[in-house]
Amino acid sequence: MMRRFGSLKRIISSSPEKYLQRRCLSPPEAATAQLLSTENEPKMPAFDYTPPPYTGPTADQILSKRKEFLSPSMFCFYNKPLNIVDGKMQYLFDDSGRRYLDAFGGIATVCCGHCHPDVVQTIVNQTKKLQHSTILYLNNEIADFAEALASKLPGDLKVVFFTNSGTEANELAMMIAKLYTGCNDIISVRNAYHGNAAGTMGATAQCNWKFNVVQTGVHHAMNPDPYRGVFGSDGEKYAKDVHDLIQFGTSGNVAGFICEAIQGVGGIVELAPGYLSAVHSTIKKAGGLFISDEVQSGFARTGSHFWGFESHDVVPDIVTMAKGIGNGIPLGAVVTTPEIAQVLTRRSYFNTFGGNPVCTAAGHAVLKVIEKEKLQDNAHVVGSYLKERLNALKDKYEVIGDVRGRGLMLGVELVTDRQQKTPANAEILHVMDQMKEMGVLVGKGGFYGNVFRITPPLCFTKEDADYFVDVMDHAMSKI
């Protein structure tokens, strides 16, 4: 039987004692109920690793310094922020040594696993030899990794320019498109996130991530969202909006179109079938370049393909990437064709740390681990299994409005009313906090902040998937 949820009037405290007291239980009854609840909780899979004892500052001391010396724009998950001090593969450990199943992967960044020994050893070895010189000198690490990276891309996509982040990569990609075409208009998709610098903030299409600064030359097309979009899963109808934007909002020619194959920050939104192929045709007719933002969906995360765009039957002119490329090392890249890359020779274009030998050595090690451990296959098999289990949970709880995504890039959207699709903001915070109490960490996003973002390391197992869903089930059953 499907369980119905009413809206929570406020976020329920993460403290079991307070929660039980609010349900009118006396202290002895509350203690008994808490004990029974703990006994009935799902059991975390066994894992053969114990972190060394933590001897550093307390969470309160760190939080105090953070408030005094770091930007006030920084925020934390949970009412009581976690002090994470150790990590191994798909698990994280706090300052007390408690283990957590990491289903967020540092925002879709940790693909091989936390502190994967092959990646760590490569970083250590390279750091001992040469930590930094400059790309003005020769070094084999940057050249070898560029060659290996190019081999993973189709067609003539083989010229690589390394950056330090996805924001930098997208900024560079849009500048290249403008230089190559001689046009300034960029088309992005509503609900997209492409970064937080000047140009990428313009391409980002959520007010939550945009400051009131000058942003020009970007047109935001209708989002081809199969769940909330007006045309459902009809990708070609959404694509017509791109055609109309070009006809009525530009000179008829554009610099390019930038898009995520699966919107990450936007709430793991898969684009409606047929959309990208239709838009690709429209953009080419307008003289523009097609830019695929693979910052979150790249590096085998979707399981079915190495890159997200590959499931849409298109070949981009430019591909941007970051996050999973380095398994946590600051690294990004822009890959394009030799012809398009020539535009950067018109002036001097340079990035001091782009192509750093430690970072590129780490990136190359990541590629080798993905292939050696067949992590793409694992993402497909485990991700498909996890999605099936989440869909079964959707049949059980009406608060789950949608389950979507592919591979180990999945989203679960919570709503208080399935017909109205009213965002369940309080409910998701409560479930998320309760899951943390049971040892599971998961991300949150979407424009309304009501979508679980499930992007674990690609070494996630079926046992981990079972534990994840069982914990979510247990947390939802207690509301």
The radius of gyration computed from the alpha-carbon positions, rounded to a whole number of angstroms, is: 23 Å
Termini gap = 16 Å
| Residues in helix, % | 25-40%
Coarse structural class:
alpha/beta
**SS elements, strand count:** 18
Largest sheet features: 7 strands, mixed
- Low-confidence stretches are 9-36
Count of individual helical segments: 15
Percent in strands: 15-25%
The coarse silhouette is globular
Q: Mean of residue pLDDT?
A: 93
User: In order across it, which strands form the biggest sheet?
Assistant: 4-12-11-10-7-5-6
Describe this structure in words.
- It is a single chain.
- The chain has 479 residues and is an alpha/beta fold.
- It has helices at residues 16-22, 27-40, 59-69, 105-108, 117-129, 140-150, 166-181, 198-203, 235-249, 275-285, 338-341, 357-372, 375-396, 425-437, 462-477; strands at 84-88, 91-94, 99-102, 159-163, 186-189, 218-221, 256-260, 262-263, 269-270, 289-293, 318-321, 332-336, 400-406, 409-417, 422-423, 440-441, 443-445, 451-454.
- The strands form four sheets. The chain has a seven-stranded mixed β-sheet, sandwiched between helices.
- Helix 1 packs across helix 2 (27-40) and helix 14 crosses helix 15.
- The longest helix is centred in the C-terminal third of the chain and has 22 residues, at 375-396.
- It is globular, with a radius of gyration of 23 Å.
- 48% of the residues are buried.
- Mean pLDDT is 93; it is low at 9-36.
